Amino acid sequence: MPTNLSPEYYEADKRYRAAQSDDERLSALREMLSSIPKHKGTEKMQADLKSRIAKLRQQVSKGGGRKKGYDPSHVRRDGAGQVVLVGAPNAGKSALVDALTNATPEVAAYPYTTQKPQPAMMPFENTQVQLVDAPPVSREYMPGWLANLVRLADQAALVADVGSDAVLDDVAEVLEVLSERRVQLVRGPVPDRDVVARVVEVPTVMLATKVDRPDAEERLEILGEFFGDQFEILPCSVEQPDTLESVRQRLFRLLDVIRVCTKQPGKPPDLDQPYVLPAGSTVLDLAFKIHKDLARNLKYARIWGDGMYDGQRVQRDHVLRDMDILELRD
Questions:
Q1: Which of 75, 92, 114, 214 has the most neighbouring CB atoms within 10 Å?
Q2: Span 198-226, pLDDT tens digits
Q3: Model's pTM, two decimal places?
Q4: Cβ(257)–Cβ(276) under 8 Å?
């Protein structure tokens, strides 16, 4: 029997897949259940949704009750996306986080300084990206939870020290150790990424650090010969601020998200606190992000953005671009 699922159901399902927190997933599941047609052909789907809602609600309630044990593999997402920095001992991860953010992680010349994940916010124009400094990856020592931290991140930054003669061996070892734990670092994007698959592919960019060191240019060229087809390689140094700005730009762009600003009729737009959505999102997706009641009542929007007339009227299914400005009309 055909299910005849409504557009509202598919929109809620899309929000569920893009959700970054249990509360967002729970809200989307409830919307899916409320919008699904109630007939014999959807009975199994209804039962499955109710079961998922019950399990997730129990999970959320446990999280809000008695404090559970510390789980270092879970770092609450913040900002436009989460990027985990991985690399060999002394690759320069902590120094990069220190230079790119306002945080002050412990930075030392000896290995294994970082023992637990340390999140920090990297400002980029009118938004922020969460960087997570993680312990080093090596055969000698790697925390059991680290693979899961990388698996769940939106993106990884593989830090390679081109100031070291051992850079090729270090990078190869990091890739092998993570691969043995069923985490594959790959050039992004990864369409329809499944973080619970047996082997998880994590979109990754390589940050070649310490390019100001002697012989670094020669090692950078060799690094490109070995790994240039596998990763996009961004040369950088904490001593060269212009290279860090390039890193900021690329880390944000590779998250594949857009920023959308809103305004009230007759008032200027709020450009300092944009909504962040997956690339390809529509006017209706933005409305759901703000409030589900607004999405239900939404009729159309007026838009200011590239390729559009100022205040041009667009429908609910209009695909948005980065830094569009919208007036939502219900």
A1: 92
A2: 899 999 999 999 999 999 999 999 999 99
A3: 0.77
A4: yes
